[in-house]
Amino acid sequence: MFLQPPSGLNGIRAVLLDLSGVLYVGDRAIPGVAEALRRLQTAGYPLRYVTNTTRHSRARIVRELSSIGFTIRPEHLATAPAAIHTRLQAEGRRPLLLLNPDLAPEFEDMATDDPDVVVLGDMGEAFDYAHLNRAFRTLMQGAPLWVMGVNRYFREADGLSLDLGPFVRALEFAADVTAENFGKPDPRLFHTAVADLDLSPEEVLVVGDDVTSDVEGALDAGMAACLVQTGKYQPGDENLCGHPGAGLAGDLADVVDGLLDPACHPERERP
């Protein structure tokens, strides 16, 4: 059950889920999550997924989720790389791509000569001075900075690790620019993730382990939100939320218990 139920619980008709820290940590599923998802689907809740993960392609994310027990259709997963690719195509841009090599196939149709925009993803171990300095020089020539997230850190199997955000901030400071974020907490990514459901934002509950990117991002997008105490959650994170109405639960299974509790919901038509 919820430790603190989110506002608007009775009106929820679909659930939008973060991946890392909610479904799994490292390469292991969080206990009870797969069964919780099955219960939601049986009860008639459409499920959609959103992630700021940029170390892997969408196809690889779906494949690796399948290997640990989660079956997700690629079109049900919204990612920041896909959002940036759409924008690059629409504007005919030539990006300087600083990405994890696994993402390269998703951008192989892009012309990259004489770049006019810097696109930054999580390069992991490949982050080094040479890459950052090339980005800095391109920004100093007037190119904008487009990024796939601004998360500070995430949890891997062996502990917390730096995410993309610290490198974004370094480039912003050095080049005196402001990055345009295509990942969470940008409301556009949340809205894109559920666009095919034809629901109003307040009918969607977002579940995540990051109080800023997931919870505040969802609330800014007009959705209900619940923070779970798994993944990167640190004690007291719930007190950092600057918006009222956020929920709190131990894990996704507890969220599902709360959603499916008859006492919490009057009879209503399911989508």
Q: How is the secondary structure organized here?
A:
Elements: E1 2-4, E2 14-18, E3 24-25, E4 28-29, H1 33-42, E5 47-51, H2 58-67, E6 77-79, H3 80-91, E7 95-98, E8 117-120, H4 129-140, E9 145-147, E10 153-156, E11 159-162, H5 165-175, E12 180-181, H6 187-193, E13 204-208, H7 211-220, E14 224-228, E15 247-249, H8 252-260
Parallel strand pairs: 2-5, 2-13, 5-6, 7-8, 8-9, 9-12, 13-14, 14-15
Antiparallel strand pairs: 1-15, 3-4, 10-11
Helix pairs in contact: 1-8, 4-5
What does this structure look like?
The chain is an alpha/beta fold and about 270 residues long. Helices cover about 30% and strands about 20% of the residues. It contains 8 helices and 15 strands. The protein has a 7-stranded mixed β-sheet. Strands 7-8-9-12 form a 4-stranded parallel β-sheet, with helices on both faces. The chain has a two-stranded antiparallel sheet with strand order 3-4. Helix 4 (about 130-140) packs across helix 5. It starts with a strand and ends in an 11-residue tail after the last helix.
